[in-house]
Amino acid sequence: AEESEQILRFLFQHLTRPEFTCRFVWTPGALVFWDNYASQHNPINDYHGFTRVMHRVTIGGGRPCL
């Protein structure tokens, strides 16, 4: 735990830097996809008064080529 604390702190701070984030602006009929293999989803509840509908889709196969 002691050895991993510094690297984990660095990684958590690194992945939230603005240049590594995407802020999607919802509009009527908008549809968004993201790849959980290569990204991290961090929803922000800024849609007060509206219903958020989400569907999870899993695609079979092996590890994607990066």
Percentage beta strand: under 5%
Report the structural category: mainly alpha
Which ranges are low-confidence, i.e. pLDDT below 50, for 5 or more consecutive residues?
none
Query: Quaternary arrangement of the chains shown?
Result: single chain
The value of Rg in angstroms is 16 Å
Apparent shape: extended
Mean pLDDT: 82
Q: What is the tally of helical segments?
A: 1
- Helix-strand sequence: H
The rounded distance between the terminal residues' Cα atoms is 30 Å
The percent of residues in helical segments reads 10-25%
Strand segment tally: 0
| Biggest sheet descriptor | none
Strand and helix layout:
Elements: H1 2-15
Quick structural summary:
With 66 residues, the protein is mostly helical. The protein is built from 1 helix and no strands.
Could you walk me through the main structural features you see in this protein, from its secondary elements to its overall organization?
- 0% of the residues are buried.
- The chain is mostly helical and 66 residues long.
- The radius of gyration is 16 Å and the shape is extended.
- The chain has one helix at 2-15.
- The chain has one helix and no strands.
